[in-house]
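MODEL INPUT / OUTPUT PAIR
PAIR INDEX: 1
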Amino acid sequence: MSKQVSVFLLYNEHDFTKFLVQELQKFSFISQIFLLSSLDCKTKIAGTKILKIENPFDSKTINLIKGNANSDYILFLTQDIMIELGQFALERFLYVAENTGSDLLFSDYLEIKGEEKKPHPLIDYQLGSIRDDFNFGPLLFITKEAMKNYEQSFDYKFAGLYDLCLNISRSKNILRIPEYLYSTVATDLRKSGEKLFDYVNPKNRDVQVEMEKAATEHLKKIGAYLKPEFVQINFEEKTFLYEASVIIPVKNRVKTIRDAIQSVLNQNTNFNFNLFVVDNYSTDGTTDIIREFADKNEKVNHLIPVRKDLGIGGCWNEAVHHKDCGMFSVQLDSDDIYKGTDTLQKIVDTFKREKCAMVIGSYTLTDFKLNELPPGIIDHREWTPENGRNNALRINGLGAPRAYYTPVLRSIKIPNVSYGEDYAISLAISRNYKIGRIFESIYFLQKMGRK
């Protein structure tokens, strides 16, 4: 095999790095092995060179790799973790790179948990994707040509690797190899729901600012950046019997639906509102609770769709297209509650003040006893009027509760799915219309036990 590979490993003087180096040195096509470390390393590994870094994801590290790699390909281990190479793993990276012309390759891998090895399949990189939390896995295989052509937009402290991946995506191929080419020990053992809010943790604010900067520059370079210019909303164009309608899609939430409905009926407003509870064929007693409320209070509309193929988005469509749906359609999940009795008023006031087609609030993460859970208040302050809709392409969600100007929602239609329908409709609205924000917490998102 004539092609050569330069290897860059993060190094904190762990023994597993020494074992990996010894394994790599068996391959004739491995021409260089560099150890990237922020430590003053006392333990040297024969046949390697230590390169001093501050942060593995900053621009300096990316440029250090760029300047030291003299081979055709670069193997970059982006985490300081144990890696066990699979059968012919490196040969497969080389072969696929050579035969596809791809400039950044990644693969599925196995996670070692105790005595078990569990598959960790990844997903293909989609053209146009700019999510900064896209999982490439810890092992990247990059062509020297792609690294040589990389020109950083700014001197990043945290977004260097992200900026590199965006740069490669603009003109080159990024390819997933659907094979389990290596194994690694799982290091973050939290459940996925616990990891979901890492990016809105205030401790990560500086990282988020840089990531937004890199994403915005990328969008400008590919001609996808949207300037802060919006279609104006005229709320006088159409008349509605109700000013607002709260919409709760529900299936089998017998333990939480009563509190959710009551939190709506507790709202104090200077306008008429109603509530649509779209009961998607519950079988656990939820239906009886909704019927009890509907029989006693004319504000409560108990909808059971005719169709039996509806997800959460489809249930929303049932309410939004109902003749009695109000001017503003306001979200409440069946296992959450509004924080105060003025939540609905604050949302409608924001619509009127900002003349926007959508309003997104802020929420507090709690358990079902309303004890606050970390990171606490999720206010998505990364949203700005000037750049929010561009930055929305990078991040994982936009916040809650969400509310919509009903005519716009009716014109777009909500995808009939049960995950991501809110994100999809928010992106669609943001292309043309302003989105208003409420940065104080007005909603309790009860996280423990959510399905």
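PAIR INDEX: 2
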Amino acid sequence: MFKKILVANRGEIALRIIRACHEMGIRTVAVYSKADEDSLHRRLADEAVCIGPAPANQSYLDIKTIIAVAELTNSEAIHPGYGFLAENSTFAGVCEDCDIKFIGPPSHVISRMGEKSEAKRTARAGGAPVVPGSEGVVSTLNEAKAICEEIGYPVMIKAAAGGGGKGMRLVSRQEDLFKLYENARGEAQAAFGNPDLYVEKLIINPRHIEVQVLADSYGNCIHLGERDCSMQRRHQKLLEESPGVGISEEIRKQIGEAAVKAAKSAEYVNAGTVEFLYDDQGNFYFMEMNTRIQVEHPVTEQVTGVDLVKEQLKIAYGEKLKLRQDDISMSGHAIECRINAEDPDKNFAPSPGKIDFLHIPGGLGIRVDTHVFQGYTIPPFYDSMIAKLIVYGGDRSEAILKLKSCLREFIVSGVKTTIPFHRKVINTEKFVTGGFGTSFLDSLNEKQVDI
């Protein structure tokens, strides 16, 4: 096994990786910006090196400096976590060129699956169902118009290199196509440096179902069931659970097999997530593949008992998967809430600052992944997520009751958080009954919800 790994990230995911490494007897190197001098990942790693000032493009996105630190510290591998450089094929390629193991898929796979139209082609070639639409990038407005007429309105225009809702436009009628097409191109160029777009048929209020996969370098690939990530605000996930609400065993088997087919078609290696749209008729369609560990991976760990980060390390080192599909079973129900330092009453504006008091809930079946502590000052430079609250119960009803109790007990003072918002959401009838899709939170009238 590796003797030393550099963790090219910060926050709770850096701590998550450091803990997994220590449990496997692997030494760790943390990199941190000047804004993170007081961070836990710096304190808990075996070694820590400052890589630059607060702005991410001068620290956590600085490939040359990170590679230099890896070489100076004799790190054999780099774990990118999620965000920052995790899905950067250039970074993965530089690691390969420098004989440093990138803990994730090969650079050419990241490139292939990171370009969404190419990812669709790859999934389709593997036999996974895809949303009707363009087979690749649409080069002109006339081409987009022809495809829209063929599949019918409404449609979604999406950035080929995008994510997080950037470069995405809903087009309900042909008269709006030109304006929205140009808007999407401009936003895609600004956000990703790539203006390419593709077109998909709009699936009305679908559920967002994703499947966790593990694949080794020897052609073995398995799935670990699905997660329901439909609780989104403006295409940003806020709450995830596993297993999916109301997913039958037949659909679970079909969607899991489709995910494995997509991963094998991509020649995928390591942990990854295949994402699908699931409609109210029981149809599911490949949407994209995330070539990294996911924020919401703990809910899969809770219901399967598999440590996904440790599996990543084993696969990266060259070990064969010891798990087979028949070894994987889902037991109970897990729900994760992303706790962000944001003010829900001010359109979820970031709320950086010092945490004056912190009380974290505990008990059987309760897990909190966090990097913050009482007295910690949340910097304004990075993602606003400060914790992930994960609860596990024998079934969904028990998990919801446990989640309600935890959210009452979770206290953060000194900054605003999304805890009150989560308390409102989980008391809605649609959440409790599972009758929600990806548009639910955007249409939620909070004043009608009784805390």
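PAIR 2 NOTE: Residues 206 and 280 are 7 Å apart (CA to CA).
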